[in-house]
Amino acid sequence: MSITLNSKSSETLAKMIENSNGKIFRVTFVKRDGSIRDLVGRMGVTKYLKGGKRTTDENKYLCVYDIQNHGYRSINRGNILVVRAEGIEAINTELKLI
Question: Which residue has better confidence, 94 or 27?
Answer without folding.
Answer: 27
